[in-house]
Amino acid sequence: MDTHLNYKRGPLACSCPNSHACTGPVWHLILYCDGITPGGALVPDNRRKAVVWYASFHELRGKLAYEEAWITLAIART
Known about the structure:
The chain has strands spanning 29-36, 50-57, 71-77. With 78 residues, it is an all-beta fold. The protein has a 3-stranded antiparallel sheet, with no helix packed on it.
């Protein structure tokens, strides 16, 4: 048996070849942006500030409180 996954079969494959998108459950994207300043609370290092963008899905509900439920999209030094 061939173990390679391609666009025609596999766990994420679409079974409706004549349409552009498959119907199924809708996932709602959440975007979150936060500023990070390294250093201690009393002595921040403002020379190394950054802005970080994260994404997750509303359907994860109670798991959104965990760091592992969020995907880091971008980090920009400010």
